Each structure stands twice: as C-alpha cells, then as structure tokens.
C-alpha cells in the first residue's frame, strides 16, 4: 500500500523556491557555466538530503519535483560534459533511497522507476540500472529483476532490445550477488569476458578459488580468439595470478607474469611482475628484467629505466637513439628523463631538451613557444656543461634556417642564443618587490 504524500510545509515551499532559483528557468547555461550551475543544484540537493533523514516521504516529493524541473531545463543547457545528466542520475538514486527509508512498497518503486526509464527523451536514465542497483534493497532488486525478466522473455525476437535487457539483468544479479541467476542469464544470452570476471569474483567471495579459476580461464580463452569483444576485461590476467597464488601455485603465477612482461614490457606489466617475485629473489631477477628492457620500445624503456634508477644504462641507450625518434615521444616521457640526467649526463639531457623544443616548433604549436624557448635554454646550458658548444651551434643554425618566418618565436630564440633566456628574466615576485621599492 502506497504511503500518503506529506502535506506541503513551509520547509517544502522554501526548498521548492530554492530549486526554482537554482535551475534558472529561461536562462541558457553554456558549457563554461556548467560547473557553477551544477554546484548550485548540488547545494539544493544537500538541503533535501537533510529532510530525508527526518522525513523521507517529504524528501521523495521534493526529489520528484526536482527531477521534473531538470527535464524542463534539458533544452536550456549545453551538457557536453555530461555533468547535468550525472546529477539527474544521482537524483534518481536519492529518490529510491528516500522511498526505501519511508518504507514505500518496493514493487511500486520499481514500477515508477521503469515508467521513467520508458519515457525519457533526454537519456537521463540511460543505463540507470547500474547506479540504482547499488542503492536498491534486496527486495527491491528482486522486484527489479522480476520486472525486467518479464520484458526480457517478451522481447526474444528483437535482438538488440533483448540483448540490452539481458545486460540489465546481469547488472541487477551482480548487484544482488545472485550467482545462480547470473550464470543462468549468461547461458541464455552471450558469455563475455567481463561476465567471467564477475562470476569469478562472486565465487571468490564464496571461498571457491578453484571454481573461480575455471571461469577466469574461460574468459581469457574468449578474449584471446582475436576478435574485439564487447565486454572485454582488463582484470582477468591479474585475477588469474592472484588465484593461482591463493591456491599455492605461486610459481605458475610468477611465470605467467613473466611471459606477460616479455610480450608487453611496460610500466604496468613490470609492476605486476614485481608483485609476484619474492623480495629475496628480486636482486636475482634484476639482470633478466634489464635484458628485456634493452629491447623494449623506447618510451617504455625510458620509463622503466628511470623507475629502476638505471641512469647510466638509460644514457647509453639514448646516445644511440636518433634525434627524430626522441622527438616523436611525448613531453611526459622525455622531461623526467632530461631532469634526471642533467647533472651526470648533460650531453644526453641536452639532446632531450633539444628534442622537446624542436617537437613544438616543428609542429607550429605557437601557444607552447614559451615552453620551447625554455627547452632550448636548458639544452644550451647542458651542451655547454658537456663542452659540446659546436653541437649547440648546429642546432641554432638548423632552427634559424628552418623557422626564420616564425616571427612570434624567433626574437625569443635569439635571446636564448645570446644567453638571455626565460630564466634570466626576473620573477613576478622580484618585479613586484622592485615596484614596491620604487
């Protein structure tokens, strides 16, 4: 039996006025105004949360009004960021939570929720089941699953819609930790790698690691057939190794991590490998790991050698690497290496700073010219430290010849060449103190 709605109170009127004020009816909210606009809506929602603690049914009424108002506002906002849609999604979850606090009938809650999901011209309820399932009670989840199941059975001849309903059922069963139903719906639809991960997780929570391992391996087999699958899982490999360790098969877990590192030597596979090597064995493994890094792609090698503090090895590899190959790498890869090598290996650091500067001006990214000038100034200093001024002058000649028409860059570059780069200019604090003294 549905609960009666509370009478309109002064508090309700105050919050309704706050909703209307925050939603700014008639005003179009541009992209740049979105953050402050959503912040205003969230403050009103906090007021409703306060009401929910003492009078949940009154909160239900207010949230319903708030949701309706958001639908009215939908065409008056640029929601490219998706933040408005996420806010409305949170309102739906708060509505469910308040109804549960108010002891409302779970079946009626689900019925009304589905009616909203069916009549949604703006996509606010798209995949709403993922968030709502996290707040629904056990009984609410059962009602939700039963309602979707009826639709699922009725839509068997409509592939796309039937598949969507199957995914919704999977979400609900996973939230309710209903292993039997989850496995059953996978048998009726399509078993995806992510399904195997979820089933394995449920089995682990029931202390059945051997069974969980079977599902993990099944998921990996699906994922390795070379096709791009919906529902791929990036956790199956890690989960497999953790289960093997749990089963007392740590050597197999270690070998699996090693094979993965051999195929994909990068920061993440290295971290995973180290996790499965006992501390007392890591010194022994170090030369083997370095041997792999020696032939790894340049970007990964730089990151890994920095992490392992193998600066000399890194310097040796970079000396043998062409300037063009270094220029191709991102600033986030090169800059940490340049900073780390500047003291002991200035010749290599100069090469890196030069590459960062050339990368910017060759691409004509004028808004980063200040950064390029700073890079060239650091390159100059490092070349001088390494007694390689002729190499620096070759760089100067190259830049002068190839970029003479970049009028917003060349004056600053000539200053760098003359030894008057960005670092020689007084800071804003120094300029301010000088102004104050005057």
Topology (SSEs and partners):
Blueprint: H1 10-23, H2 34-54, H3 56-73, H4 83-101, H5 106-118, H6 129-132, H7 138-154, H8 159-175, H9 179-188, H10 193-205, H11 209-223, H12 236-246, H13 250-263, H14 267-275, H15 282-294, H16 298-307, H17 311-320, H18 323-327, H19 331-341, H20 346-363, H21 369-385, H22 389-402, H23 410-417, H24 428-437
Helix pairs in contact: 1-2, 1-3, 2-3, 2-4, 3-4, 5-7, 7-8, 8-9, 9-10, 10-11, 11-12, 12-13, 13-14, 16-19, 19-20, 20-21, 21-23
Name a few traits of the molecule.
438 residues; flat; 24 helices; mainly alpha
Overview in brief:
This protein has 438 residues and is an all-alpha fold.
Helix content: over 70%
Give the termini distance in whole angstroms.
80 Å
Q: What share of residues are in beta strands?
A: under 5%
What is the CA-based Rg, rounded? 31 Å
Number of strands: 0
Coarse shape: flat
H-E order: HHHHHHHHHHHHHHHHHHHHHHHH
Structural class: mainly alpha
Helical segment count = 24
Q: Runs with pLDDT <50, length 5+?
A: none
Mean pLDDT: 92
Largest β sheet strand count, sense and barrel closure: none
């Amino acid at each position: 039996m549905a609960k009666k709605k509370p009478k309109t109170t002064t508090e309700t009127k105050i919050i309704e006025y706050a909703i209307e004020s925050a939603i700014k009816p008639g005003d179009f909210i541009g992209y740049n105004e979105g953050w402050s606009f959503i912040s205003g809506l969230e403050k009103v929602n906090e007021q409703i949360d306060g009401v929910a603690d003492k009078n949940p049914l009154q909160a239900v009424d207010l949230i319903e009004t708030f949701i309706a108002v958001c639908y009215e506002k939908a065409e008056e906002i640029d929601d490219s960021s998706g933040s408005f849609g996420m806010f409305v999604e949170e309102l739906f979850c708060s509505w469910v939570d308040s109804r549960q606090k108010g002891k409302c009938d779970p079946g009626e809650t689900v019925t009304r929720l589905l009616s909203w999901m069916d009549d949604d011209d703006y996509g606010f309820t798209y995949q709403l089941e993922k968030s709502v399932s996290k707040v629904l009670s056990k009984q609410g989840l059962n009602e939700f699953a039963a309602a979707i199941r009826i639709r699922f059975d009725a839509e068997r001849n409509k592939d796309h819609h039937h598949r969507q309903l199957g995914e919704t059922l999977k979400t609900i069963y996973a939230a309710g930790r209903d292993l039997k139903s989850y496995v059953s719906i996978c048998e009726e639809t399509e078993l995806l790698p992510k399904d195997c991960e979820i089933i394995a997780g449920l089995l682990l929570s029931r202390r059945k690691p051997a069974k969980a391992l079977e599902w993990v391996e099944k998921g990996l087999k699906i994922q390795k057939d070379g096709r791009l699958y919906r529902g791929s899982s990036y956790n199956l490999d890690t989960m497999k190794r953790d289960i093997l360790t749990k089963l007392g098969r740590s050597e197999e877990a270690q070998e699996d991590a090693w094979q993965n590192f051999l195929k994909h030597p990068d920061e993440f596979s290295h971290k995973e490998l180290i996790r499965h090597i006992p501390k007392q064995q890591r010194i022994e493994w170090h030369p083997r790991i370095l041997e792999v890094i020696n032939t790894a792609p340049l970007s990964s090698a730089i990151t890994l050698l920095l992490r392992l503090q193998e600066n000399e090895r890194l310097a040796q590899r970079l000396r043998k690497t062409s300037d063009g190959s270094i220029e191709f790498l991102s600033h986030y890869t090169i800059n940490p290496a340049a900073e780390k090598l500047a003291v002991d290996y200035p010749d290599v650091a100069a090469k890196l700073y030069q590459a960062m500067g050339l990368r910017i001006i060759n691409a004509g990214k004028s808004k980063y010219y200040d950064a390029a000038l700073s890079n060239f100034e650091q390159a100059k200093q490092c070349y001088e430290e390494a007694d390689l001024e002729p190499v620096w002058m070759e760089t100067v000649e190259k830049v002068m010849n190839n970029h003479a028409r970049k009028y917003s860059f060349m004056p600053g570059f000539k200053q760098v060449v003359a030894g008057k780069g960005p670092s020689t200019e007084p800071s804003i604090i120094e300029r301010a103190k000088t102004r104050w003294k005057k």
